[in-house]
Amino acid sequence: MVIIPSFVKLLPIPEPLITPDLINNSADFGTPEESHDNTVEFENSKNISRLISEDYFTDSILPCDNTTSPGNWMIYCSGKLLQAVMSVKLYNDSKTFLDQPMKQNTTGPMIMRAFHRTFSGPIENIRKEELKKFVDKYFDKEGNELDVCELPEWAPKQFSGIKDETYNAFAQRIHFIWIQLCRKMKEEVKDEQNRFSLLYVPNSFIIPGGRFREFYYWDAYWIIKGLLASQLYSTARNMISNFGYIIEKHGFIPNGGRVYYLRRSQPPMFAPMVYEYFMATDDLQFVADMIPLIEKEYTFWNNHRSVNVTKEDDIETTYNMFQYRTESQTPRPESFREDVLSAQHLHSNSSDSRRKFFQNIASAAESGWDFSSRWFSDGQNMSTIETIDIVPVDLNAFICYNMNILSFFYSKLGNRLKHDEWAGRYNQFRDFFTQVFYVSSRRGWYDYNLRTQKHNTEFYPTIAAPLFAQCYDPLNTKLAVDVYNQIEEMGALKWPGGIPTSLRQNTSQQWDFPNGWSPLVHMVIEGFRKSLNPVLQQKAYEIAKKWLETNILTFNISNAMWEKYDVKEPDAKLATGGEYEVQAGFGWTNGAALDLMLTYSDRLNWTGPRLENLVGPKTTTTIQTTHDTITTTSSSSSSSTPVSSSNTSKSYLIITITMFIMYIGLL
Ligand SMILES: OC[C@H]1O[C@H](O[C@H]2O[C@H](CO)[C@@H](O)[C@H](O)[C@H]2O)[C@H](O)[C@@H](O)[C@@H]1O
Predict the structure, then answer these.
(1) Which of the residues 285, 451, 497, 509 has an alpha carbon 20 to 30 A from that of 387?
(2) pLDDT digits (tens, 9 = 90+) for 126-149
(3) What pTM value is reported for the model?
């Protein structure tokens, strides 16, 4: 095991740079309030305060409560203090307060008593400075409960399979970022869970980055793909074990590692994580350990998220499918202010509609697509959100994948009976899936709307989710080609930076045009790659190359990897839209990029301008020989050591060399 010396943490970590070049001028980078629909004209802060102070909790199902988080639900999931913080807009990002631990020797009920003593009048009368004093007295800084950590087996890596100098240097730089994104919990989180919104897990893990300072469920699949590409097997295993621990404790995997996520999940990627780990390591004992937990998670989806679907053209047949559908009926605590403002068209006297509206919002967050025209009945406005009327194609493809993986694992474990049971379920579900989602006239799988009894046949990358999850008959080799042609005809493949999340313009939502997200782009690439059709495999490579170019060009300017990108621009821009600013880090972008660079390691060839930040400036050396003069052009760096002319890159060089020496020493 290589121990990373603690001084490495003290070396300067380059700050991400947001340069004007990176921001698309036509889009407003904006504050959350400017970019969130419905809020623009709602200027009067008194009115906002009044709206935020209304009662959203009585008779509503809360995001967490006495049963799930007895000691702290009154702070992190409901209550007047939460409302006051949102009312005065104590922080630019609503999530900040929710991630602040309570100070030592305090409890939730104690803080609430103090709050009511200090602020006895209506919330609208509370002054920001006084509330700030109160919060500073009782709470620590957000994220204070987490430490940076030592990745068990991290060492500088050559990525010798990646022959191209630029891609090789890029892979090495991403490999470094794992160190920055690793977190472990302070002991007190385990011992005094009630003081923290953070959910305790036993092992260290990789966070997405920025405001996302806890684990996220579906992000982890792509993070794990990247860790496996980096050969950080123990870290990947630790992350999966954490999820196993969480399933054991809570019966499912919440959206993220905070109590305010305890009523909703995210796309079910636990079984695929174990599958990827097994394919990389052959560790069958780990599969045996995890398989009861995979089944337990499946039971959660089956008991709490299934729905009977009957189609208009065949009312005799009922299909058991799955939905994103949390029970929670209040504004999301981490976006309380934003959700209340989005609901301003609904009055308090129509509390049932308001509850349903919040349930639809939180259910869209469960999908990971928060938010998108995909969930809006008018395809444009948040006020028309109807997530729980929709049966989503991606979720059902993932469930199908889970069934297939379970049958595969049981066969590996030699359990014939269980293998047959899951193979039977998989085969039947796959047929039902085709019946419910495939639309022959539009050559693809589409979300089904229970209210309208129609498919939404607009483009979303979810059309390729069944290819990724292999939820179709492999003998039907024409199907993947049809789907590809459909996607191309829809105009989704013509964008210079990758694949957009939809073709719906100006929704101001982050999961819409022109934003590209690595999990979706990776899913489409993998879908075509797995199709076994050589033409589609070539297309998969071309999309991967385009996406990597977007990542790499942006990295070269900003020194950072980003959560999402604007794919309509030829020269790599950061994405905008949604309720928070685009975040740097970034877990799944790094994971998907590393995985793609390894998949296509022998083909990738950087043809763009020389990226000095990555590979250093070109140097020209003149060698005088007896007979003639030979001029060679080379990079100032070797492919194993990233060097650049910038100061930040120099610090990477120092880290690399220092760590390499330490590594050799430790061996
Ligand atoms: O705070 C707003 C929302 O933020 C998260 O969503 C986004 O980031 C996640 C982490 O990268 C990602 O998993 C999700 O797909 C993104 O939309 C959070 O997951 C939401 O629940 C939360 O309301």
Answers:
(1) 497
(2) 999 999 999 999 999 999 999 989
(3) 0.90
